Amino acid sequence: MAASSYYVILVAFVALVISQATASDPMKVNGFVCKDPMAVNADDFFKAANLDKPRDTMKSKVGSNVTLINDMQLPGLNTLGISLARIDYAPLGQNPPHTHPRATEILTVLEGTLYVGFVTSNTDNGNKLFAKVLNKGDVFVFPQGLIHFQFNPIHDKPAVAIAALSSQNPGAITVANAVFGSKPPISDDVLAKAFQMQKATIDWLQAQFWENNHY
After folding, report:
1. Is 127 annotated as a binding residue?
2. Which of 5, 59, 135, 202 is the 20 to 30 Å CA partner of 108?
């Protein structure tokens, strides 16, 4: 059989496999099943999130409440590379140190005052902290993947911010939760050496309830 005939048969076989796969399995993007374009409607791009309403921060051990709008809440965001969150801070409340593995974040303060910052990755000169005190209307950027935080330093006034993120699914790793609240727990031998602490201190930290308030 000529080489050209082999090529024609190969192309036909590949086309058959693809057609069978697409016929039996719905196409997914970012883990989500793609909706039939003919079934898409305005509600896929809309959510009554009431982001103008204050959130309860009293039940949070860290004193903050994050309301995330990502592709889980708003299907029309899928593949668009953007999401947002409203963050409410109690007096002296914080959004504890965390990272977003898939997104850079830009934060705008709507009300109150926030002390914010991020830490650079490992360098010969150590991990440098970039921090500022923000007031109403101020903006700060947290680069993708770097540990960052927000803290309301005012003891008698709440604060509110809006965060925009450069992914429809930014992800979050809260440092304390990941290190001390993993299930099953990381060996206290490992953490005691890593943090240069007594194992009893590590055991105490691992016994705490590490609240996940995060987006």
Report:
1. no
2. 59
DSSP string, 175-202: HHHHHHS-SSPPPHHHHHHHHT--HHHH
Domain ranges for the chain, please list them.
49-171, 175-210
According to the annotation, is 105 in a ligand binding site?
yes
Q: Give the model confidence (pLDDT) of 29-78 as tens digits.
A: 666 777 788 888 999 999 998 999 999 999 899 999 999 999 988 999 99
98 is in an annotated binding site: yes
Closest to 166 in 3D by CA, of 92, 98, 81 = 81
What is the number of residues in the chain? 215
Q: Does 111 count as an annotated binding residue?
A: no
Judge: domain 49-171, CATH 2.60.120.10: yes
